[in-house]
């Protein structure tokens, strides 16, 4: 078995590996702490990890991976019903948690190991895991029923992180800063396991703040990972926080993911810092599929090109591949490669439905592709593809156009049934000034002038805020037509 973390033995012993606030571990200390904990896990089957944004969570997951034991990260904000489902479905033999964590009733019945990073004695874990063995079971958000456990093999983690190293020129000299949750692929696999595979350092903010970002990037950090809500806050703060603009200008790489970053936030950040935010595209089931490359063109609104080793195609509704890419034809993204999950745990039906007969994974994401390979995502097939007047329209580009209007702070676009058009376009906006919100006629003209008349909204709702999940994605199923 190839090691997921060769740097635990190869990196300089005193190089910082993890830092959470004022607590940190060097590579030597992390190797010791995770080796001892891995030895305690033995043949534990699956283990649950109470995934708070702490040093203990990082140690717990790395220890489980070193022991060859699949880890099931638990979102501490999950409700009792969801936690109960995840625990009964994944059947972990124990839970790993920080000593002070108070666990809810659904988790309390599990045997518990308190993670107290011990750096005083050594143990070398032995594992007979293969590259195809499960590393993580990560539960999807469950928008269409109970969450499904995506079984992510060790090869998927290794191949995704190595492909990103190629695309982003990511090395052991890089120091990453982020404030993302650690129960999700973005924050955990990319944000914690990524630096550790490269032999670099990660500084976790605990909780995202623009001041924390400015402090770390001014103190030697080279990369920032965030989600659009974080970059939106950064864009809004730049005028009042000159140190933030200066710090971002020093960064080697600013990466946004988990949802599309609006074009106007791209432009505000670039104008103030001289740096372009690059986007990448992935899912729980596929880890990372595409990215703008560090040595490529950072085109706002695109997620770049397929990563090394990843095959990507767009298909029509009948499954026929789109053969000519013109930047306009909308199709569903399908991917194939070593980055894919193995199965949905205990759901052979859902696993079979997710793949074509020849092994392509149906992502459910709709996109257009430029002739040079750049991919632009226009939304989810289930919630963002609107069929209106004979056109297939992606909600994402209309949202971007709405956000360019000075009277719009946030925007979401959905479709609703229409006897004449099939579906009509509905805009949900949070006005910049609630006392003087822009009207439908004004916004429809604004969109029609930027995109095309058939893409203009026909219905408008004003809201005080948009419903979002922990990763900043708008939960469109919570938007009800009243």
Structure write-up:
The protein has 482 residues and is α/β, with parallel strands linked by helices. Helix content is 29%, strand content 26%. It contains 14 helices and 25 strands. The protein has helices at residues 7-10, 27-41, 55-67, 80-90, 105-108, 154-168, 185-198, 210-218, 228-237, 242-250, 263-273, 348-354, 395-403, 440-450, and strands at residues 16-20, 23-26, 47-50, 71-74, 94-97, 112-114, 134-139, 149-153, 175-178, 201-204, 223-226, 253-256, 277-283, 287-291, 305-306, 311-315, 331-336, 343-344, 361-369, 375-380, 385-388, 391-394, 408-418, 422-431, 459-462. A nine-stranded mixed beta sheet has the order 2-1-10-9-11-12-13-14-15, with helices on both faces. The protein has a four-stranded parallel beta sheet with strand order 4-3-5-6, sandwiched between helices. α9 (228-237) packs across α11 (263-273). It is globular and about 70 Å long.
Task: Give the SSE layout.
Layout: H1 7-10, E1 16-20, E2 23-26, H2 27-41, E3 47-50, H3 55-67, E4 71-74, H4 80-90, E5 94-97, H5 105-108, E6 112-114, E7 134-139, E8 149-153, H6 154-168, E9 175-178, H7 185-198, E10 201-204, H8 210-218, E11 223-226, H9 228-237, H10 242-250, E12 253-256, H11 263-273, E13 277-283, E14 287-291, E15 305-306, E16 311-315, E17 331-336, E18 343-344, H12 348-354, E19 361-369, E20 375-380, E21 385-388, E22 391-394, H13 395-403, E23 408-418, E24 422-431, H14 440-450, E25 459-462
Parallel strand pairs: 1-10, 3-4, 3-5, 5-6, 9-10, 9-11, 11-12, 12-13, 24-25
Antiparallel strand pairs: 1-2, 7-8, 8-18, 13-14, 14-15, 16-17, 17-19, 19-20, 21-22, 23-24
Helix pairs in contact: 2-3, 6-7, 8-10, 9-11
């Amino acid at each position: 078995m190839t090691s997921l973390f060769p740097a635990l033995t190869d990196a300089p012993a005193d190089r910082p590996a993890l830092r959470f606030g004022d607590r940190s571990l060097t590579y030597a200390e992390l190797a010791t702490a995770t080796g001892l904990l891995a030895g305690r896990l033995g043949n534990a089957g699956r283990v649950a990890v109470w995934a708070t944004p702490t040093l203990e969570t990082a140690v717990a997951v790395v220890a489980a991976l070193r022991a060859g034991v699949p880890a099931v990260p638990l979102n501490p904000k999950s409700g009792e019903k969801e936690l109960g489902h995840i625990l009964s479905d994944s059947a972990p033999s124990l839970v790993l948690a920080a000593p002070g964590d108070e666990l809810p009733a659904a988790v309390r019945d599990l045997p518990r190991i308190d993670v107290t990073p011990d750096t005083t004695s050594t143990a070398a874990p032995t594992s007979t895991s293969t590259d195809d063995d499960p590393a993580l079971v990560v539960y999807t958000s469950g928008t269409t029923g109970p969450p499904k456990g995506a079984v992510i093999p060790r090869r998927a983690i290794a191949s995704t992180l190595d492909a990103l190293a190629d695309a982003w020129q990511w090395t052991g000299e890089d120091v990453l800063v982020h404030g993302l949750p650690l129960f999700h692929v973005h924050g955990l696999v990319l944000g914690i396991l990524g630096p550790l595979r490269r032999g670099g350092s990660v500084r976790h903010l605990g909780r995202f703040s623009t001041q924390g970002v400015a402090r770390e990037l001014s103190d030697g950090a080279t990369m920032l990972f965030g989600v659009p809500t974080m970059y939106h806050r950064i864009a809004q703060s730049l005028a009042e926080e000159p140190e933030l603009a200066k710090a971002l200008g020093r960064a080697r790489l600013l990466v946004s993911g988990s949802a599309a970053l609006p074009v106007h936030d791209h432009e505000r950040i670039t104008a103030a810092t001289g740096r372009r935010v690059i986007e990448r595209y992935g899912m729980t089931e596929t880890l990372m599929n595409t990215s703008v490359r560090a040595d490529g063109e950072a085109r706002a609104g695109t997620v770049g090109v397929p990563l090394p080793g990843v095959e990507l195609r767009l298909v029509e509704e009948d499954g026929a591949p789109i053969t000519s890419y013109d930047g306009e034809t909308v199709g569903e993204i399908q991917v194939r490669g070593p980055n894919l999950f193995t199965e949905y745990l205990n759901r052979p039906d859902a696993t079979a439905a997710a793949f074509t007969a020849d092994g392509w994974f149906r992502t459910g994401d709709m996109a257009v592709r430029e002739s040079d390979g750049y991919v632009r995502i226009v939304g989810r097939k289930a919630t963002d593809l609107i069929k209106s007047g004979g056109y297939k329209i992606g909600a994402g580009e209309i949202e971007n156009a709405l956000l360019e209007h000075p009277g719009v702070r946030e925007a979401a676009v959905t479709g609703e049934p229409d006897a004449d058009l099939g579906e009509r376009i509905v805009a949900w906006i949070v006005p910049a000034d609630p006392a003087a919100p822009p009207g439908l006629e004004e916004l429809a003209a604004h969109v029609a002038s930027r995109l095309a008349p058939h893409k203009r909204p026909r219905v408008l709702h004003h809201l005080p805020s948009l419903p979002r999940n922990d990763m900043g994605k708008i939960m469109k199923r919570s938007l009800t037509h009243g």
